[in-house]
């Protein structure tokens, strides 16, 4: 029997926490007084009332949460958060369509960064702050989800990536979530604060610095500026953001080790080395390509390459240069990066560096097996053999990712969009990147999508953020049986 | 030790056989006398001389062929055939660049159907006939390769697809190849003759009928007409070709059973049922889509849908309507079909229906495993469990296919082509289809590619035709060791 009451209880509790974050927006709203105060007050009231009611009437539901309850809570909470979170945009009238407001909010909570806004700077400060905060909260959520919850649910090989998570290793959801959250959120907050200080030093005002630190660490990519990071026109700011995007795309466990001076554990980590190598190689090729094709001087070319490579591979989606206008070869390289994504245990989306690495290793061994059929060579990671069931899980993840992309391309094209826009929008939303190619390229937005398109893309963002399986199992009839 | 002499001996023998086929072209060349006779005479002489020399000096090389020799022979023979096969085009001056002539010929032997010709009908009859004949020979080659040679080499799960191949089941290459060739080529020839008769009844002249039967049964798609099948403007001809393309995209083992009245073995075959279901569903959707969007009457819409769906899924590549001009939704569906391909043991290319089916089944089970982790449910085909090593092989095949596509998109874009053309050219060549999307769409050709592009795409055709692994193992250093 599903413990529905307990599901409602936990979601109620989480909605109350969301309410607290919404209250935070009253600060910029009070300071700037540019018209979003009533919307925040009304939303807070509604959120606390609903969350409180949900929690109160189910408070005796018992403590036990099974795996199935886990799947339901994780999938639902992102949707419920977006339903409440979109209210400030909608009630203030700044986003007049509820679907648009929902799209913008789930794009925030999933740290995607796709926007329907055609003039971001027209928004009052409270709403801009809330928009960035949804991403920061989404980043917090994903750290706990990927490092504490999904491994227990056994999703997409996540159990492997967190073999070294500090904290209780028992299969109990509650203490593990709590302990992981405590340790890793500390790091998340420290990095956010450090970036804010550096951005202030770079000449950003306090408001912009906080907002961009929120959306950098979440690899979200929402900006307070229509032109994104290009607006600031500051090499120093670009270098700072590149560095923090890179960190945010790295497993927070590695950051934990680095902060405890265990640098060798960072350096010996194969996923990290592969991530570093990919970033380095792509910067080298794209930077050289930009320099050759007259984009700018050496420093500017490599800086821009570094910024866009890190922005896309980490699925942040900030822009300093419209890569759609580069020569096709360089745009194509950026396009390929869209599918790799961040490291496991980071806030980045996409397929994830470690899955790409293990798929490549396994594939290489399969080709080799044609010469030496007798030799059974297991795939190794960090010098340890990886179990066949985890490899199978990861391969399945890869195929589902591609299958969902293919179906999405057909669905989006049914709205009248051409091939590049269909692929671009599907890749950008499923990978939680934000900008894609075609009519959703860096200089564009998602406003032109019809209603159905926005809900469909919202669903893709959720699927991608929750590592596909978490949501997909809910669609299996066998999930609901017994 | 590699038995290089034996490799040369066998290839020499095969080149002599190619010489016999080139001699066949003297018939149309004599009848029409439109200027290609000297080129054919010279090519024949060169081919017989070289093949004979290769064979003569290695005739005492011993009979044994190991697996490694097998890989080398299979990969080399397609290249060597194209080197000799392109001579008539080049020596006659009708294709002035050697690279272009090679591209056209390997496109023929791999049954791809991509062309560099901008005015097909300007070619003399002998050359047109040779162009179609390369595809017909390629089809013959692929039947033997996929049903007799690759299973023994253990390529891409091919050992599974041919579990029921009639003939000797011992692991000896020689008798198996001979027996399979004898039985299945008989069917191939019967179908070719039957189609020729039906096309003659449909009003085609003898020359066009023979040529199109050759390229239909090979799922090659070369036409003697610039407009492809649209030229004939005959519903009867379209229905006949649709039927034979469908048959050519089915395993020739099933045709063998059907000819021996074992219809239940055909009907019970899961790959066949899935192939039939795919074709049916896509025709239904695209036909309805065409009818709704004012393409033509009901019959014309569904006929055109049937023709293009079967032409693309079987990787033939004939055209009766430029699908690039349909609404994006319908073009996108055709684009998806490019990746499925024909059945295993057919002359079709692509990933293959059975691999897609097994990947889908395996992926579904992996998702299900998240609810019931304890249950180990093997993937079944035709009610028999499929071994995990074959599934692993097929999954690896899928990833390599996608990986090669991704790399190819980057390579092609480096020549200055946009996203859709890069994806279209890569998919069309790797899948042995012929036309793609963008600047290689149904109304276009491959003439505009620079030299490097043509050689690269030629390589993709070879990779795709030889089920990737056959060629890829040659690039492993360990293949050449010991």
Write the SSE topology:
Two copies of one chain form a homodimer.
Chain A: H1 4-24, H2 26-32, H3 37-56, H4 67-85, H5 87-91, H6 98-109, H7 125-153, H8 158-161, H9 173-201, H10 206-217, H11 235-248, H12 252-259, H13 263-267, H14 270-292, H15 298-313, H16 328-337, H17 353-368, E1 380-381, E2 384-385, H18 388-413, H19 419-430, H20 451-465, H21 469-472, H22 477-480
Antiparallel strand pairs in A: 1-2
Helix pairs in contact in A: 1-3, 1-4, 2-7, 4-6, 4-7, 6-7, 6-20, 7-9, 7-10, 9-10, 9-11, 9-12, 11-15, 14-15, 17-18, 18-19, 19-20
Strand order of the largest sheet of chain A: 1-2
Poorly predicted regions of chain A = 166-171
Oligomer: homodimer
Helix/strand class of chain A: mainly alpha
- List the secondary-structure elements of chain A in sequence, H or E: HHHHHHHHHHHHHHHHHEEHHHHH
Radius of gyration of chain A: 22 Å
Mean pLDDT across the residues of chain A is: 91
Which band does the percent of strand residues of chain A land in?
under 5%
Classify the helix fraction of chain A into a percent range: 55-70%
Compute the number of strand runs of chain A: 2
């Amino acid at each position: 029997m599903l413990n529905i009451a307990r599901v409602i209880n936990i979601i109620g509790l989480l909605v109350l926490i969301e309410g607290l974050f919404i209250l935070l927006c009253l600060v910029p709203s009070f300071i700037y007084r540019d018209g979003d105060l009533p919307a925040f007050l009304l939303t807070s009231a509604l959120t606390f009332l609903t969350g409180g009611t949900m929690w109160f009437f189910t408070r005796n539901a018992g403590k036990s949460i099974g795996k199935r309850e886990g799947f339901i809570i994780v999938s639902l909470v992102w949707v419920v958060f977006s339903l409440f979170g979109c209210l400030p945009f909608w009630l203030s009238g700044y986003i007049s369509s509820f679907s648009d407001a929902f799209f913008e909010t789930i794009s925030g909570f999933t740290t995607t960064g796709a926007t329907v806004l055609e003039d971001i700077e027209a928004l009052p400060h409270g709403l801009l702050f809330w928009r960035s905060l949804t991403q920061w909260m989404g980043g917090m959520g994903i750290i706990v989800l990927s490092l504490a919850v999904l491994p227990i649910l056994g999703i997409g090989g996540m159990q492997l990536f967190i073999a070294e998570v500090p904290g209780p290793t028992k299969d109990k959801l509650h203490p593990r979530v709590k302990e992981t959250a405590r340790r890793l959120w500390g790091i998340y907050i420290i990095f956010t604060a450090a970036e804010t200080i550096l951005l202030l030093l770079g000449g950003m005002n306090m408001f912009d610095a906080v907002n961009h630190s929120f959306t950098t660490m979440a690899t979200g990519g929402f900006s307070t500026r229509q032109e994104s990071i290009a607006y600031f026109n500051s090499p120093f700011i670009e270098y700072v953001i590149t560095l923090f995007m890179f960190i945010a795309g790295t497993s927070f466990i590695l950051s934990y080790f680095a902060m405890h001076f265990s640098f060798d554990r960072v350096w010996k980590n194969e996923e990290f080395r592969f991530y570093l190598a990919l970033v380095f190689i792509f910067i080298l090729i794209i930077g050289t390509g930009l320099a050759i094709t007259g984009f700018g001087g050496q420093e500017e070319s490599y800086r821009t390459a570094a910024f866009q490579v890190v922005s896309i591979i980490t699925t942040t989606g900030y822009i300093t240069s419209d890569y759609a206008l580069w020569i096709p070869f360089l745009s194509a390289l950026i396009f390929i990066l869209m599918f790799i994504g961040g490291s496991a245990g980071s806030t980045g989306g996409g397929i994830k560096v470690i899955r790409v690495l293990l798929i490549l290793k396994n594939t290489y061994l399969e080709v080799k097996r044609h010469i030496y059929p007798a030799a059974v060579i297991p795939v190794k990671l960090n010098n340890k053999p990886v179990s066949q069931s985890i490899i199978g899980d990861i391969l399945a993840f890869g195929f589902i990712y591609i299958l969902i992309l293919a179906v999405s391309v057909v669905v989006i094209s049914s709205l009248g969009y051409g091939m590049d826009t269909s692929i671009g929008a599907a890749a950008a939303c499923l990978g939680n990147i934000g900008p894609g190619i075609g009519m959703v390229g860096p200089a564009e937005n998602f406003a032109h999508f019809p209603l159905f398109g926005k809900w469909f893309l919202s669903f893709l963002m959720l699927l991608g953020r929750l590592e596909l399986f978490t949501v997909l199992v809910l669609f299996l009839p066998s999930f609901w049986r017994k």
